[in-house]
User: Fold Threonine dehydratase, catabolic from Granulicella sibirica.
Amino acid sequence: MALVTLGDIRSAQIRIAPAAVRTPLVQLSNGIFVKDESAQPIGSFKLRGAYNRIALLAEEDPDALRRGVITYSSGNHAQGVAYAARALGTKAVIVMPENAPTVKIEATRELGAEVVFVGSASSARKLKAEELAEAHGYTIVPPYDDPAVIAGQATCGVEILEQVAEAGEDPSDLLILSPVSGGGLLSGTATGVKLLSPTTQVWGAEPELAADATESFQSGTLVEWPAASTTRTIADGLRTQSLGLTNFEHILKYVDGIVTVSEDQIFQAMRFYLATTTLVPEPSGAVTLAAAMHRGDGLPKARNVVVILSGGNLDPALRESFESETAAGRV
Assistant:
Protein backbone atom coordinates (compact mmCIF):
# COMPACT_ATOMS: atom_id res chain seq x y z
CA MET A 1 0.00 0.00 0.00
CA ALA A 2 1.41 3.39 -1.04
CA LEU A 3 1.48 5.81 1.89
CA VAL A 4 0.73 9.51 1.72
CA THR A 5 3.81 11.58 0.88
CA LEU A 6 4.96 15.03 1.91
CA GLY A 7 4.22 16.13 -1.66
CA ASP A 8 0.62 14.94 -1.27
CA ILE A 9 0.31 16.99 1.92
CA ARG A 10 1.83 20.13 0.40
CA SER A 11 -0.60 19.83 -2.53
CA ALA A 12 -3.47 19.45 -0.06
CA GLN A 13 -2.38 22.64 1.72
CA ILE A 14 -2.75 24.56 -1.53
CA ARG A 15 -5.98 22.81 -2.52
CA ILE A 16 -7.86 23.49 0.74
CA ALA A 17 -6.68 27.07 1.15
CA PRO A 18 -9.91 28.59 -0.27
CA ALA A 19 -11.98 26.88 2.44
CA ALA A 20 -10.06 25.71 5.50
CA VAL A 21 -8.42 28.19 7.85
CA ARG A 22 -5.09 28.02 9.65
CA THR A 23 -6.55 27.45 13.09
CA PRO A 24 -4.98 29.04 16.18
CA LEU A 25 -2.60 27.39 18.62
CA VAL A 26 -3.83 28.55 22.01
CA GLN A 27 -1.67 28.37 25.14
CA LEU A 28 -3.77 26.75 27.86
CA SER A 29 -1.14 26.68 30.59
CA ASN A 30 2.61 26.42 30.97
CA GLY A 31 3.65 23.75 28.47
CA ILE A 32 0.11 22.93 27.28
CA PHE A 33 -1.23 24.23 23.96
CA VAL A 34 -4.54 23.63 22.18
CA LYS A 35 -4.81 23.33 18.39
CA ASP A 36 -8.31 24.76 18.05
CA GLU A 37 -9.95 23.02 15.09
CA SER A 38 -13.34 24.25 16.30
CA ALA A 39 -12.32 27.50 14.58
CA GLN A 40 -12.88 25.91 11.16
CA PRO A 41 -15.96 27.20 9.26
CA ILE A 42 -17.84 23.99 10.12
CA GLY A 43 -16.50 23.84 13.69
CA SER A 44 -14.33 20.77 13.01
CA PHE A 45 -11.09 19.55 11.41
CA LYS A 46 -13.15 17.41 9.04
CA LEU A 47 -13.30 20.21 6.47
CA ARG A 48 -9.62 19.66 5.65
CA GLY A 49 -9.96 16.10 4.38
CA ALA A 50 -13.42 16.46 2.84
CA TYR A 51 -12.51 19.54 0.85
CA ASN A 52 -9.23 18.04 -0.35
CA ARG A 53 -10.99 14.87 -1.56
CA ILE A 54 -13.79 16.71 -3.41
CA ALA A 55 -11.50 19.39 -4.87
CA LEU A 56 -9.23 16.63 -6.16
CA LEU A 57 -12.27 14.96 -7.74
CA ALA A 58 -13.04 18.26 -9.46
CA GLU A 59 -9.53 18.22 -10.95
CA GLU A 60 -9.51 14.55 -11.97
CA ASP A 61 -13.12 13.82 -13.00
CA PRO A 62 -15.42 16.86 -13.48
CA ASP A 63 -18.24 14.62 -14.76
CA ALA A 64 -18.21 12.63 -11.51
CA LEU A 65 -18.29 15.86 -9.55
CA ARG A 66 -21.40 16.96 -11.43
CA ARG A 67 -23.21 13.72 -10.52
CA GLY A 68 -22.73 14.44 -6.84
CA VAL A 69 -20.98 13.02 -3.80
CA ILE A 70 -22.10 10.89 -0.88
CA THR A 71 -20.67 10.02 2.51
CA TYR A 72 -21.54 8.31 5.80
CA SER A 73 -20.97 10.19 9.03
CA SER A 74 -22.24 10.86 12.54
CA GLY A 75 -21.93 14.58 11.97
CA ASN A 76 -18.68 16.47 11.50
CA HIS A 77 -17.54 14.78 8.29
CA ALA A 78 -21.11 15.19 7.07
CA GLN A 79 -20.76 18.94 7.49
CA GLY A 80 -17.33 18.91 5.86
CA VAL A 81 -18.66 17.15 2.76
CA ALA A 82 -21.78 19.34 2.64
CA TYR A 83 -19.69 22.52 2.94
CA ALA A 84 -17.18 21.42 0.30
CA ALA A 85 -19.88 20.22 -2.09
CA ARG A 86 -21.73 23.52 -1.86
CA ALA A 87 -18.50 25.49 -2.37
CA LEU A 88 -17.56 23.38 -5.40
CA GLY A 89 -21.05 23.36 -6.92
CA THR A 90 -22.26 19.80 -6.54
CA LYS A 91 -24.90 17.76 -4.71
CA ALA A 92 -24.14 16.09 -1.37
CA VAL A 93 -26.00 13.14 0.17
CA ILE A 94 -25.15 12.18 3.74
CA VAL A 95 -25.99 8.87 5.44
CA MET A 96 -26.24 9.53 9.18
CA PRO A 97 -27.13 7.38 12.22
CA GLU A 98 -30.55 7.90 13.73
CA ASN A 99 -28.90 8.84 17.04
CA ALA A 100 -26.69 11.60 15.59
CA PRO A 101 -26.78 14.84 17.62
CA THR A 102 -29.57 17.12 16.44
CA VAL A 103 -27.18 20.07 16.22
CA LYS A 104 -25.09 18.16 13.65
CA ILE A 105 -28.08 16.98 11.62
CA GLU A 106 -29.48 20.50 11.39
CA ALA A 107 -26.11 21.99 10.48
CA THR A 108 -25.66 19.44 7.69
CA ARG A 109 -29.07 20.22 6.22
CA GLU A 110 -28.45 23.96 6.47
CA LEU A 111 -25.42 23.46 4.24
CA GLY A 112 -27.73 22.09 1.55
CA ALA A 113 -27.12 18.36 1.90
CA GLU A 114 -29.73 15.63 1.65
CA VAL A 115 -29.71 13.46 4.80
CA VAL A 116 -30.59 9.74 4.84
CA PHE A 117 -30.87 7.91 8.18
CA VAL A 118 -29.88 4.35 9.14
CA GLY A 119 -29.20 2.54 12.43
CA SER A 120 -26.40 3.32 14.85
CA ALA A 121 -23.76 0.94 13.45
CA SER A 122 -21.04 2.62 11.39
CA SER A 123 -20.98 -0.46 9.13
CA ALA A 124 -24.66 0.11 8.28
CA ARG A 125 -23.95 3.70 7.24
CA LYS A 126 -21.18 2.58 4.91
CA LEU A 127 -23.33 -0.11 3.27
CA LYS A 128 -26.20 2.34 2.67
CA ALA A 129 -23.84 4.90 1.11
CA GLU A 130 -22.41 2.25 -1.21
CA GLU A 131 -25.94 1.22 -2.22
CA LEU A 132 -26.97 4.79 -3.06
CA ALA A 133 -23.70 5.50 -4.87
CA GLU A 134 -24.26 2.48 -7.10
CA ALA A 135 -27.85 3.48 -7.81
CA HIS A 136 -27.27 7.17 -8.58
CA GLY A 137 -23.66 7.44 -9.72
CA TYR A 138 -22.50 9.42 -6.69
CA THR A 139 -18.82 9.41 -5.73
CA ILE A 140 -18.19 8.25 -2.17
CA VAL A 141 -16.11 10.59 -0.02
CA PRO A 142 -14.94 8.31 2.80
CA PRO A 143 -14.76 9.86 6.27
CA TYR A 144 -11.22 8.61 6.88
CA ASP A 145 -10.08 5.62 4.79
CA ASP A 146 -8.81 7.51 1.74
CA PRO A 147 -5.35 8.91 0.88
CA ALA A 148 -6.72 12.33 -0.12
CA VAL A 149 -8.66 12.60 3.13
CA ILE A 150 -5.57 11.60 5.11
CA ALA A 151 -3.47 14.18 3.23
CA GLY A 152 -6.04 16.86 4.02
CA GLN A 153 -6.04 16.01 7.73
CA ALA A 154 -2.23 15.94 7.68
CA THR A 155 -2.22 19.69 7.08
CA CYS A 156 -3.27 20.06 10.72
CA GLY A 157 -0.06 18.41 11.90
CA VAL A 158 2.09 20.50 9.57
CA GLU A 159 0.48 23.67 10.93
CA ILE A 160 1.21 22.58 14.51
CA LEU A 161 4.91 22.21 13.75
CA GLU A 162 4.97 25.61 12.05
CA GLN A 163 3.17 27.30 14.95
CA VAL A 164 5.32 25.67 17.62
CA ALA A 165 8.44 26.88 15.80
CA GLU A 166 6.94 30.38 15.44
CA ALA A 167 6.42 30.41 19.22
CA GLY A 168 10.14 29.76 19.66
CA GLU A 169 9.66 26.21 20.95
CA ASP A 170 11.58 23.11 19.91
CA PRO A 171 9.42 20.71 17.84
CA SER A 172 11.78 17.85 18.70
CA ASP A 173 10.75 18.09 22.39
CA LEU A 174 7.03 18.01 21.69
CA LEU A 175 4.12 15.62 22.27
CA ILE A 176 1.02 15.93 20.06
CA LEU A 177 -2.23 14.27 21.14
CA SER A 178 -4.92 13.56 18.55
CA PRO A 179 -8.35 11.98 18.99
CA VAL A 180 -8.76 8.68 17.16
CA SER A 181 -11.88 7.03 15.77
CA GLY A 182 -11.61 5.84 12.17
CA GLY A 183 -8.08 7.20 12.21
CA GLY A 184 -8.23 10.06 9.70
CA LEU A 185 -6.94 12.82 11.96
CA LEU A 186 -4.44 10.67 13.86
CA SER A 187 -2.99 9.02 10.75
CA GLY A 188 -2.81 12.31 8.89
CA THR A 189 -1.35 14.31 11.76
CA ALA A 190 1.25 11.65 12.51
CA THR A 191 2.24 11.34 8.86
CA GLY A 192 2.64 15.08 8.35
CA VAL A 193 4.54 15.52 11.60
CA LYS A 194 6.89 12.55 11.30
CA LEU A 195 7.85 13.36 7.70
CA LEU A 196 9.03 16.78 8.90
CA SER A 197 10.08 16.15 12.51
CA PRO A 198 10.76 12.45 13.19
CA THR A 199 11.54 12.95 16.91
CA THR A 200 8.21 14.66 17.70
CA GLN A 201 5.96 12.25 19.60
CA VAL A 202 2.44 11.72 18.20
CA TRP A 203 -0.09 9.80 20.28
CA GLY A 204 -3.77 9.03 19.91
CA ALA A 205 -6.46 9.31 22.59
CA GLU A 206 -9.83 7.56 22.61
CA PRO A 207 -12.59 6.60 25.06
CA GLU A 208 -12.23 3.39 27.05
CA LEU A 209 -15.72 2.48 25.83
CA ALA A 210 -14.62 2.64 22.18
CA ALA A 211 -11.01 1.46 22.39
CA ASP A 212 -10.81 -0.57 19.19
CA ALA A 213 -7.88 1.55 17.92
CA THR A 214 -5.90 0.88 21.08
CA GLU A 215 -6.47 -2.86 20.76
CA SER A 216 -5.55 -2.78 17.07
CA PHE A 217 -2.39 -0.76 17.70
CA GLN A 218 -1.21 -2.94 20.56
CA SER A 219 -1.88 -6.21 18.75
CA GLY A 220 -0.72 -5.07 15.32
CA THR A 221 -3.91 -6.57 13.90
CA LEU A 222 -6.95 -4.58 12.82
CA VAL A 223 -9.91 -5.38 15.08
CA GLU A 224 -13.55 -4.32 15.02
CA TRP A 225 -15.76 -3.62 18.04
CA PRO A 226 -19.53 -4.10 17.94
CA ALA A 227 -21.69 -1.00 17.66
CA ALA A 228 -23.36 -1.93 20.96
CA SER A 229 -20.00 -1.29 22.64
CA THR A 230 -18.76 1.84 20.87
CA THR A 231 -22.10 3.68 21.06
CA ARG A 232 -21.86 3.73 24.87
CA THR A 233 -19.44 6.66 24.87
CA ILE A 234 -20.60 10.29 25.06
CA ALA A 235 -17.98 11.06 22.39
CA ASP A 236 -20.30 10.57 19.40
CA GLY A 237 -17.58 11.39 16.87
CA LEU A 238 -15.40 8.52 18.17
CA ARG A 239 -17.90 5.67 17.93
CA THR A 240 -16.46 4.15 14.76
CA GLN A 241 -16.13 0.39 15.15
CA SER A 242 -12.75 0.01 13.47
CA LEU A 243 -9.84 1.96 12.06
CA GLY A 244 -9.73 2.29 8.28
CA LEU A 245 -7.29 -0.02 6.50
CA THR A 246 -5.29 2.82 4.97
CA ASN A 247 -5.33 4.71 8.25
CA PHE A 248 -4.09 1.67 10.16
CA GLU A 249 -1.07 1.33 7.88
CA HIS A 250 -0.14 4.97 8.48
CA ILE A 251 -0.74 4.64 12.22
CA LEU A 252 1.49 1.56 12.51
CA LYS A 253 4.28 3.40 10.69
CA TYR A 254 4.06 6.86 12.24
CA VAL A 255 2.15 6.83 15.56
CA ASP A 256 4.03 6.34 18.83
CA GLY A 257 1.16 5.15 21.02
CA ILE A 258 -2.53 5.41 21.94
CA VAL A 259 -4.08 5.94 25.39
CA THR A 260 -7.66 5.65 26.58
CA VAL A 261 -9.70 7.87 28.90
CA SER A 262 -12.84 7.29 30.93
CA GLU A 263 -16.18 9.00 30.44
CA ASP A 264 -15.67 10.89 33.69
CA GLN A 265 -12.27 12.12 32.51
CA ILE A 266 -13.85 13.37 29.27
CA PHE A 267 -16.48 15.25 31.30
CA GLN A 268 -13.79 16.76 33.51
CA ALA A 269 -11.85 18.01 30.48
CA MET A 270 -15.02 19.54 29.03
CA ARG A 271 -15.81 21.26 32.31
CA PHE A 272 -12.27 22.66 32.44
CA TYR A 273 -12.55 24.10 28.93
CA LEU A 274 -15.94 25.67 29.59
CA ALA A 275 -15.09 27.00 33.05
CA THR A 276 -11.64 28.46 32.36
CA THR A 277 -11.44 29.30 28.63
CA THR A 278 -13.52 30.64 25.76
CA LEU A 279 -13.06 27.36 23.88
CA VAL A 280 -16.11 25.15 23.37
CA PRO A 281 -15.32 21.42 22.98
CA GLU A 282 -17.62 18.66 21.89
CA PRO A 283 -16.92 15.42 23.83
CA SER A 284 -14.84 13.95 21.00
CA GLY A 285 -12.65 17.04 20.99
CA ALA A 286 -12.05 16.87 24.75
CA VAL A 287 -10.47 13.40 24.87
CA THR A 288 -6.99 14.78 24.18
CA LEU A 289 -7.10 17.21 27.09
CA ALA A 290 -8.51 14.41 29.22
CA ALA A 291 -5.46 12.33 28.32
CA ALA A 292 -3.07 15.18 29.10
CA MET A 293 -4.79 15.82 32.44
CA HIS A 294 -5.23 12.23 33.60
CA ARG A 295 -2.96 9.87 31.67
CA GLY A 296 0.44 11.45 32.17
CA ASP A 297 1.68 8.15 33.57
CA GLY A 298 1.13 6.49 30.22
CA LEU A 299 2.52 9.27 28.03
CA PRO A 300 6.13 10.25 27.23
CA LYS A 301 7.59 13.32 28.90
CA ALA A 302 7.96 16.39 26.70
CA ARG A 303 8.68 20.06 27.23
CA ASN A 304 5.45 21.00 25.46
CA VAL A 305 2.19 19.18 24.76
CA VAL A 306 -0.27 20.09 21.99
CA VAL A 307 -3.77 18.70 22.35
CA ILE A 308 -5.93 18.83 19.23
CA LEU A 309 -9.43 20.09 19.99
CA SER A 310 -10.92 18.37 16.98
CA GLY A 311 -14.37 19.94 17.06
CA GLY A 312 -16.65 22.33 18.89
CA ASN A 313 -20.11 21.22 17.75
CA LEU A 314 -21.38 20.72 21.29
CA ASP A 315 -25.04 19.84 21.77
CA PRO A 316 -26.72 22.96 23.23
CA ALA A 317 -28.50 20.98 25.95
CA LEU A 318 -25.25 19.37 27.08
CA ARG A 319 -23.50 22.75 27.10
CA GLU A 320 -26.31 24.24 29.19
CA SER A 321 -25.94 21.38 31.67
CA PHE A 322 -22.21 21.98 32.04
CA GLU A 323 -22.65 25.74 32.40
CA SER A 324 -25.34 25.22 35.06
CA GLU A 325 -22.93 23.06 37.01
CA THR A 326 -20.25 25.71 36.70
CA ALA A 327 -22.61 28.45 37.94
CA ALA A 328 -23.59 26.25 40.88
CA GLY A 329 -19.95 25.66 41.79
CA ARG A 330 -20.03 21.94 41.10
CA VAL A 331 -17.10 21.82 38.64
